[in-house]
Amino acid sequence: MQIDKLKHQHTDILRRVAALRTLTHAGVADNAQAIAEGIVGMSAVIKLHLAVEDQALYPSLQRGDDADLARLGRMYQAEMAPLAQAYDAFVRRWNTAQHLREDAEGFRADANNVLRRLHERMQRENLEFYPRIEAQAELA
User: Fold this and answer.
1) Which of 22, 36, 59, 64 is the most buried (most CB within 10 A)?
2) Tally of CB atoms within 10 A around 132
3) Structure confidence by residue, pLDDT tens digits, 98-140
4) Could you give the CA distance from residue 55 to residue 77 in angstroms, rounded to a whole number?
């Protein structure tokens, strides 16, 4: 399975998270519109990424000959479900400048939790999961 596109999406998402962090540090109220737009834009990339994983990556691993990698794929997929739900709630809560201006501290707390979890997940995929997939592909 070719995972270059997934890796590029991780880079894009991490760049967007960093941009949101910069805007947040500069002031939520002053940057509310840009933050809301950043959240909506990042959401589109994340939805595409999750769809590729669910419709291509995980099924490909299940059809493969490596039972351990198939098991690992099922584990990663199952672990992602609650994070995807938390991220979806985050987007729905903070996708407008008005909501951000009304509760800047609530946004900061929610962003620190959800975006930290998202960052940690992508790092695990980058360091543990994707290298296993690439190593298996080289053997095939």
Assistant:
1) 36
2) 15
3) 999 999 999 999 999 999 999 999 999 999 999 999 998 877 6
4) 11
Q: pLDDT tens-digit profile of 74-93?
A: 999 999 999 999 999 999 99
CA distance 93 to 1: 35
Distance CA 23, CA 35 (A): 7
* List of residues 6+ apart from 32 with CB closer than 8 A: 97, 98, 100, 101
Please report where in the chains the tokens 């979806």 appear, as a residue.
Answer: 88
Domain count, the chain: 1
Residue 140: predicted pLDDT: 62
Predicted TM-score (pTM) of the model is 0.92
Place of tokens 């960052």: 119
DSSP labels, 51-67? HHIIIIIHHHHHHSS-H
- Domain ranges, residue 26: 4-139
Q: Which helix (H) or strand (E) holds 98?
A: helix 97-102
What proportion of the chain, given as a percentage, has pLDDT over 90?
94
